Amino acid sequence: MLICEGWATGATLAESEPDALVLAAVDAYNMEAVAVGARQKWPDVAIVICGDCDAVGEERARIAAKAAGALVAFPDFPDGVEGSDFNDAAVIHG
């Protein structure tokens, strides 16, 4: 299961990982509640919080991951290239 902030990021993750259940929390501050709710509903499923690369996104992704016993991942951008989420990374990496 992949949990992210926004709808566009969720759509990108669903396209790149078609076998994964993707949940979009809609807001960084909602990721903890979504992650904890998902953990309660699916206690044995591996959960990865897919955080945005900005101060709030990183902080809230780490809080959500800790609260739900999940992993956390952030997109990787080449040096000198700006972006903030997995949707941006998909556009950059093609």
Give the gist of this structure.
46% of the residues lie in helices and 13% in strands.
Helix/strand order: EHEHEHEH
Number of helices: 4
Secondary structure: number of strands = 4
Low-pLDDT runs: none
- The average pLDDT score comes to 96
Structural class category:
alpha/beta
Biggest sheet: strands side by side, in what order?
A: 2-1-3-4
Distance between the termini: 23 Å
Description:
It is a single chain. With 94 residues, the chain is of the alpha/beta class. It has one domain. Helix content is 46%, strand content 13%. It contains four helices and four strands. The radius of gyration is 12 Å and the shape is globular. It starts with a strand and ends with a helix. The mean pLDDT is 96.
Descriptors for this entry?
94 residues; alpha/beta; 4-stranded parallel sheet; 46% helix; 13% strand
Topology, element by element:
Blueprint: E1 2-4, H1 7-16, E2 22-24, H2 31-41, E3 48-50, H3 55-68, E4 71-73, H4 86-93
Parallel strand pairs: 1-2, 1-3, 3-4
Helix pairs in contact: 1-4, 2-3
